[in-house]
Amino acid sequence: MAAVSPEAKRKQAEYSRAWYQRNKERVKVRTREWTKMNRVKKKAATDRWHAENKDKIRESRKSKYDIAKAKRIWLLNRYGLSEDQFNLMLIQQKNRCAVCRDSFSDANKPFVDHCHNTNMVRGLVCSKCNKAEGFLRNPNNARRMYEYMLKFELCYGGKN
Q: 123 — phi, psi (to 5°)?
């Protein structure tokens, strides 16, 4: 059998990718149907592959979960924030909660405060302030809570 040139391999791969893109839905349907009809065969093949590749799976799982990378992906996908934008917010807020001004640390991590209707990012807050804002739900409730707390200020020991 004659060796296939790298150029021919590249062209075949390109053609296969284009064909798959044109027929993606059809392929998905056929794959689902085949899997439904061949559950036992599919499970046996999967189990066999897993048994033969335990080390590969273990290494893959170790390398896949990079906490810093997961955080970057979460910030970008959830809030549209790059890591640089997040770090800039930390600097602008002097590494402190936008509400209570407590410093962020390993024990007091920053949370991205955002509007649930528009997904607009408002700032970085600590866990307690994030929960309080969620419980109060709107500025009117926050104002009423503030007035209520002022009424009984002595009960709080004069602490801000």
A: 165, -170
